[in-house]
Every structure is written in structure tokens, then in C-alpha cells.
Design a protein that fits this description.
This protein has 345 residues and is of the alpha+beta class. The protein has helices spanning 8-24, 56-66, 78-100, 103-133, 169-216, 262-271, 321-330, 338-343, and strands spanning 30-36, 39-47, 52-54, 154-158, 161-167, 247-251, 256-259, 279-285, 293-295, 300-303, 315-318, 334-336. It has two domains: 8-190; 220-343, no CATH class. The chain has a five-stranded antiparallel sheet with strand order 3-2-1-5-4. The longest helix has 48 residues, at 169-216. The two termini are 26 Å apart.
Amino acid sequence: MKSEKLTGVTKVMVGICGLALMVVLLVPLWQIELSAPQYPEGLVLKMYPHKLAGNVDIINGLNHYIGMKTLHTEDFLEFTVLPYIIVFFAVASFAVALFLKTYRWLLSLFLLFVMFGIVAMVDFWQWEYKYGHELDPNAAINVPGMSYQPPLIGYKQLLNFGAYSVPDIGGWIFIAVGALLLAAVIFQYKVNKKREKSMNGRNILATSALLVTFSLASCTIAPQAIKVGKDACSFCKMGVADKRFGAEIITKKGKIYKFDDLHCLNEFKKTGAIKKEAIQATYVVDFEEPNDFIELKKAFFFKNDVLRSPMGSNVSAFSSEQALKAHSEVFDGEMGQLNTLVLDK
């Protein structure tokens, strides 16, 4: 399910996240407001992704009296790396929406974004703790046991100053991006579950049809189940490790040749080990139902390099055109004739 393609709605949601994060580079992320009787209009410290702004000089002058270190943009490594991190998440969002386009990448982006948010808040709290506790003991105002750490978020009284710490425009955008990514993950998960139920229903119908077919043909020679770990390929002599890509040739005398890859089937036919007129039937394994077989001439073929076959042809067979189309909606690949697809290997 994690490799299923994103819907158009999900891609739009993720793309919006990328655009929103680019806006974050231009607006303040956080602000700390200070209010006191001597400053009725209030003081504000604004934190952009790349700098400090607001009433920095006035606040530094007040901090001098209580022995707190002065605030300077160049003292914080965060203001150097944060713009790059924001650009990374913006580009990653565009990549998931436009190129990667799978649920696995969407989920990875969301989890990474959440982890970054947690790390950022922990770093901010440590920054506040350091400046609020590491005070000059020779300061003009020295209250034993008093610290001046602003709140991480919300309100706190510091002597005669009230300190409010809240997200600014960029911070709210960050929160909105996280919420939108979560909504995209949940929405795509529900879509994937519906797809899975639909595919299961088609598999049941296909299996029922095959059972009827084999029942009607019980008087003829039938293919034998390919046993993983026991049977070996008649061409490459390798033990069968994945029977989903297998095939069988049954001669008119009842001899059965088993293959672990459609590439091996094709190459075996080229050797001339069995004359064409001696072949009773050729079967391929149904990729969706590996215990079932399909007559070669009735099968529909699909090549996908994500799902690797034992000998690298990466060609799988399906019992119906509907099953093939359902598979192609989940995985990128190529539909076509067996000979053409295998020769493309």
C-alpha cells in the first residue's frame, strides 16, 4: 500500500505545503511580547528564519540591568541553517507532489517534518533557558533565586514585565503545513484502503473464473503447482524463489517443464529442446494468484522494474485486462506482448 500512487487531490495538498513554506522565508516565525507600566505600548522581539527584529536594542538595554546576555543574530547558528531547512522541506514537498508521487514518500515527508518541529521547539526552549538562567551575578538588579526564562508558549510574569510567547505569521504557517500534511496522509490512506478492497474483489472474481475453467478442463493434462524451494527452473537450473513470475510447458506426452521467470521460458523455447508441434500447452502463473495458471495466449502481460523477477525480466502475467489495468494504476510500467517485453530486458 505504501507504494501506491497519490491521487490528484493529495498532490495538490502537498504542493500547497511547498508554496506555503516558501512564504515562511519572508515572514517572522515567532514573537515574544513584553508589557510593563513604563512601556504601555509594549516591546516585541520578532524571530525571522534568518534574523532577530523588533525592539532588539531596547530589550538588550533592559537585559543589561538583570545580567542577561545581549541578543545578536550572529550569535545563533539557527539563523544560518534554518532558511536551508525550510527550503529543503519546500523542495521535498514539490518533489513528492510532482515526481515521487507515492504514499511511502508522503508518509516519510510528514514524519520528518514532525520530527523537525519537535527538535526546533526543544532547541528554542534550551535557548530561552540559557538566556534566562545564565545571568551576570554583578548585575544592577540581582534577585536571589530569580530566573528570567520566557515561556515557550503562552504568558509568564517576569518581575514587573509580562512576557507573551506566541507563533507569528510564519509559525502559524508551519503549523498549518503540518496539519495539511497530516490531512493528506489520512486522505491518501483511506483512498488506498478503498483501492485494496476493490482489487480483492476483482481477485475473487478472477479466481472463481479460473476454478470453473480448470473444472471444465479436468479431463486434459493440467499444470502442476510450482513449489518454492523444491522445484528448479528447467532453463537456468536455479531453485524457484518466487513463483509469481513462473511458467510451465506441458508436452503432448505429459512431461512438464517449469520456469522461474518468463525470460527463462522465452530462452528455453529458442533452444529448440522441444519442437513446437510436441507442445500440448504453455501456462504462465497468475501474478495476483500465484497458485493459479493462465494459458499463455489468454494472459495479459505487464513489465514493472520495481517488482523484481528472479532473472530480471520483471514481467508478470494477469488473467484479465481489468486486473492488468488495476495493477497499472498502482505501479508504473509497460503493458504489451510477452516477446516484446522480455526482449526489452
